[in-house]
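Batch manifest line 202
LIGAND: glutathione
JOB: complex structure
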Amino acid sequence: MKIHEFTMAPNPRRVRVFLAEKGIEVPYQQVDIGKNENRTPEFLAMNPMGRVPVLELDDGTYLAESVAICRYFEEQQPEPPLLGTDAKDRAWVEMWQRRMEFGLFEQIAGCFRNTHDYFKGRLPQVPEYGNLCKQAAIERIQGLDGELAGREFIAGERYTIADITALVAIDFGRLSNIRIEPEQKNLARWYQAVSTRPSAKA
Ligand SMILES: N[C@@H](CCC(=O)N[C@@H](CS)C(=O)NCC(=O)O)C(=O)O
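JOB STATUS: finished
ARTIFACT:
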């Protein structure tokens, strides 16, 4: 088993933080996106989407999509639960995970992909779309500050995958000048708690 990933990219970091929370160690193989190593025929045979991370299982299965990879490890090792504990809680955590993924992470990634020099000349960029993504991310961050007024973590009183997705998104947002504002006190308190967990270094 190994994970094909790129340390500098945010989606692989989601998986690394998830595994660090569970204390699971998996060997990593670096795929340098900057050198288009994710576009080689060998890589596309593993994941036709040309994206990292990809979990390679010993039976030759290649699992892509960060949340699917996390799901695999949650089933292998349920403790500590990061995807919910019973039917209602699992649905609740998934609701918040999806809100953080589509409403925040994807918006920040959309801004980066469409406006940052890193992808200039390598991907078609539509800066106007990138700026719309940035605005949507800023509004989601503002909403999150209000939501966190009444609870410790994003999906309630326990740390879950929704916190991992939001933490990685907000850290990645700095590259596009998307930040927690000084007046967003609830979000700042949450960020202090999740970013100082040992797993955040993963
Ligand atoms: N939905 C996928 C997205 C994966 C993804 O977009 N990965 C980025 C790195 S964070 C990537 O491989 N980008 C390379 C490219 O777009 O060329 C997931 O959740 O894993």
